[in-house]
Amino acid sequence: MSQALSLPERTTVLIVGAGPVGMAAALSLHHQGIRDFVVVDAILAGENTSRAMVIQAATLEALNNIGCLDGILSIGVKVQEVGLHYGSSYLLTADFSLLEGRTKFPFGLTIPQAKTEAKMLEKLTELGIKVWRPIKVVSVKPSQQAADQDCFDVRFDSGEVLKAKYVVGADGVRSVVREQAGISYKDPHGDDNHDYGNLSQLVLGDVAFTSEPRIFTQGNKLSLTLSAGNMVLLAPFPPAASPDAKRTVYRLATSVPVEFGTAPSEPTIEYLQRLIDRHGPMELSSNPAINPHPTRIDKMYFSSRYKTRSAVAESFFAPRKAGQGGGFTLLVGDAAHCHSPIGGQGMSLGIRDAISLGPVLKAHIDSSAKNSGANPDKMFEEWSATRRDRAFNVVALTKRALGIFTAQGKMWPPFLFLMFSVLRFLGGFKFVKRNVAYRLSGLAEI
């Protein structure tokens, strides 16, 4: 449904995008005492096709700090272990319970992004914050009116124009806000071909099996299986967020071998099963010659594909241009950075971007109002540099993982056996399990 009322004519802050990152930005501003802001989104609530599934400990800390965690915790499942396998062989476990003492939330939380968004929207509504939708930004230009030289004129596809001093781009990888600011967006290592072998493409599916995978008989875990340059990730849906209340549903993510060509936009059950049978864990195979207890995908609730790429914006902040006027542009989430979904870092990092922006924006507004003669833009520059460093680190982390995953498909078998034997040995030590969990938790990148 379209909004029945017209947009305001002006605001101090305009947040473009009302996914988890945009809503986190709104909640952070409200938490800082800022009330003069507008939130818009180009699509209706619930139509976001992004399918993040995990919220890391560092992001749970950030959400807790702005009073937006209780509803999310009530739905999600606390996952304390992520198991890594090669074929049917166990390699190591990332044990988040070993982070106790470093965080209030020594676990990863599995919760579908749609439920995260719904709970955040409930919080916004509770606070009286409205999201205007569907309404799409088409241009962000310095105001030509003499009295509004410090503002942007933000034009929408409805024809309406809103004046704003600050525009926060939370509008994804194809960000109009970023494009209008003239900020470049590219791979930080110059790797614009995005060739990651079999991991260049991933397909996702929310599925139920004919029998429960035995890999999860020891509790709620995430399972990642490597095999000849491929990977299969399996995560159970929280019961309170499952698309089917009568059975266990799993989020399945698997790589697509290069020889398969371009994956279909909506993979079928048969396509996903073919991939699982080819390089998935033995417990998911439908082939009785491989699996003594054959299972197969019985029902699919959603499927899509994903092209692996990495990019970071040249800056997360664009100041006013000398002699041109206008306001300030700030980028958060996918508008500022994207990377491989391996490790489940994307949405979590974006939410932390948005929440960290709140106090900085508040300080900038207050400093500008005092007109003290100091350079308030420096705080945005420092915030941008810090968040870009975090993005670079996460890109590097996911690329290292991609490198390891793809390399094992090319290694001489005896060397591969030796490497995994060493990994299994090291994986038995508590400090290794803790360190892997710490890196995945985001606590090292707050």
Automatic annotation (TrEMBL):
Its cofactor is FAD. The keyword Cytoplasm does not apply. The chain crosses the membrane at residues 411-432. The keyword Oxidoreductase applies. Residues 10-190, 329-372 form the FAD-binding domain. It comes from the Eukaryota. GO terms for molecular function: FAD binding; oxidoreductase activity, acting on paired donors, with incorporation or reduction of molecular oxygen, NAD(P)H as one donor, and incorporation of one atom of oxygen. Gene3D superfamilies: FAD/NAD(P)-binding domain. This is FAD-binding-3 domain-containing protein.
